[in-house]
Each structure stands twice: as C-alpha cells, then as structure tokens.
Automatic annotation (TrEMBL):
Alphabetical list of Pfam families matching this protein: CO_deh_flav_C (PF03450), FAD_binding_5 (PF00941)
Organism in which the protein naturally occurs: Streptomyces camelliae
Keyword Oxidoreductase: yes
Name of this protein: Xanthine dehydrogenase family protein subunit M
Keywords: Oxidoreductase
C-alpha cells in the first residue's frame, strides 16, 4: 500500500473542502481499501466521512423514499419502510456480498464501487479503466463474467452493484452536494457507460459528495422483487439479475419498471420490456414475449454468449414471480 494522509471530518463543509483539495471520500471502505491494498488505487489523501449526518431513511412528502448516502446496506435492507414500499431494494441488498460487508458498506459507497473485472484488478494487465490508452485485455481474454450490453471497444467490464439495478429500475435520483451547491441527477445519468473514457465512471464533479438516493413515489399497489442468478448461492456476483416492479390495476398492467444486472457496463434499464408489458394482462405468454426483448442490442464476447439466453430467462422468471400468472 502506498503512503497516504487520513482526515476524519465532522461536517459537510469540512468534507467538501478536503474533497476539492483532492481527497478521496471513504466511509465503509469495503471497496477502496481493497483496491489500495492491490495498488489499483493510490490516493494521496483519504477523507473519512462516516461521521456525517447522512444516515436517515425517510418517506418523502409524495410517498417516495429517501435513503441517506451513509446508511449501511444492512440497515437499509432491514428498514421497515424499505421492506414495505420497495421490497426489490431490500432483496437486492440482502443478495449482495456477505453479512459482514453489508454491516460496513454504505449505500453511497455501493453505487460508487468499481468493477470486479479481473483485468482491472491485475495491475500487470492492460486496462483502459485503470490506465487510459493501455487497451482492454478482457476483449480477447477470458470474458465469461463480462458485459454484453453497453460495451465499447475500450471496455467490457460489468458494474457489480445489485442495489444499483433496483435503483435503475425504479428510476431513482441521486442527490449531490458540491462547491456549486446542491444538485440532483437521474440515476440513469449518474453511472456512465464506458465509451472512449471508461476511466470516468460517474458524472460527479470534483469534490462532490453523494448525500442521498431518492426513489420516486410510484402508483400503488406496487409489487416488486429482485432475482440474482450466479454460479453459487451466496457471496458471488451476478451472471444475470433482474429487478422488477409492477403496478397492476383491474387486472391490467398500468406501469412496469424493469432493469437487469450482471450483463451491462452499467445497470441496464429495459424500456422495450416495459413497453411490451404496459396495457396487457398478466399471463405466461406475456412474460415470455416481453422477456424476449431483454437482450436487444447485446454484443456477446467469446465466452459470454450464454448470457443472452440466460438474461431472457432471468427476466421472464422474475416477471412471473412478481406478476403471477392466470
């Protein structure tokens, strides 16, 4: 590990000042410390923000949900309002990592975590995300776990977060605080596809701090859930996953929110699937025909072509679980 300075701040003013000076924010540290140990990340200064007052879960005036950036994953998963209003979030969190990590990792840190691509974490391998212009070893290497959607010639790494898939499906908003004041970003705009600059992963300005993630109020009744398909039953990243939320009234789907994980360079929203569902009555044939659109635009690599069919089956299965059949 390379030498670094460490500062613990007690308010957002101190945090922003240290962030503007080049400090890297750290709370649970479950990702950044690992990357520092592997010398993938070499920050000169760490700013511990774990003492900031960003640990509340509140229901908004319109009936949505606001989760503070420093709420622990385990706390968010167990919170009664999260479990009642948006089970998809609780389920995504509970299917993430180990219990020990969920007790430490924060919501803000989770959506900021970096890819688990083995080439990114191997400092001897070519990786445009780690070292711009060096190439992408994964494209011609062993790429079974890599992305089939949102890829570019520069990068094919997947985004590892489970709860980010739920946030993408629910069309959440990220609240930010920086030198220019408060601003909000749609979750879809917060995480960036690699394009030609895979080293730029979030639409953050220098020194900006995530303060909360807000889920909008959605029509009720709303049924939701998260399904994760992986090589082993626990403590493993997704091969494919699906976050689904459905509002069904009088036997007709009025609103559908669907996103996939494990297959995209960012959590992958599935608007074609959503459009296919709205206005229809739940049925086995509907789930199958809607899910058939889940892999539209996929660009599989040598070792991950199986994800195309697996994604369709994952989405169909979760639609069936959430929406039922008649």
């Amino acid at each position: 590990m390379h030498p670094f300075s460490y500062t613990r701040v007690s308010d957002t003013r101190e945090a922003l000042k240290a962030g503007r000076a080049g400090g890297r924010y750290i709370a649970g540290g479950t990702t950044l410390v690992d990357l520092m140990r592997e010398t993938v990340e070499r920050p000169e200064a760490l700013v511990d923000i774990s003492g900031l007052p960003l640990r509340e879960v509140t229901v908004t005036e319109r009936g949505g949900l606001r989760i503070g950036a420093l709420v622990r994953m385990a706390e968010a998963a167990a919170h009664p309002k999260v479990r009642t209003l948006y089970p998809v979030i609780s389920q995504a969190l509970e299917l993430s990592a180990s219990a020990q990590l969920r007790n430490m990792a924060t919501i803000g840190g989770n959506i900021m975590q970096r890819t688990r691509c083995t080439y990114f974490r191997d400092v001897t391998a070519a990786c445009n995300k780690r070292e711009p212009g060096s190439g992408c070893a994964a494209r011609e290497g062993f790429n079974r776990m890599h992305a089939i959607l949102g890829t570019s010639d520069a990068c094919v790494a997947t985004h590892p977060s489970d709860v980010a898939v739920a946030f993408a499906a629910l069309e959440a908003t990220v609240h930010l605080l920086g030198a220019e004041g408060v601003r909000t970003l749609p979750f879809a705009d917060f995480l960036l596809r690699p394009g030609t600059t895979p080293n730029r992963e979030q639409a953050l300005r220098k020194g900006e701090l995530i303060t909360a993630v807000e889920i909008p109020a959605l029509p009720r009744p709303l049924k939701s859930g998260y399904l994760k398909v992986r090589d082993r039953q626990s403590y493993e990243f997704a091969l494919t996953s699906a976050a689904v939320a459905l509002h069904v009234r009088r036997g007709v789907i009025q609103e559908a929110k669907v996103a996939a994980g494990g297959v995209g360079t960012v959590p992958w929203k599935l608007p074609a699937v959503e459009r296919h569902l709205v206005g229809e009555r739940p049925s086995e044939s509907l789930w199958t025909s809607a899910a058939a659109k889940a892999a539209d635009g996929a660009r599989p690599l040598q070792h991950n072509g199986f994800k195309v069919e697996l994604l369709k089956r994952t989405v169909a299965r979760q639609l069936r679980i959430v929406g039922g059949t008649k």
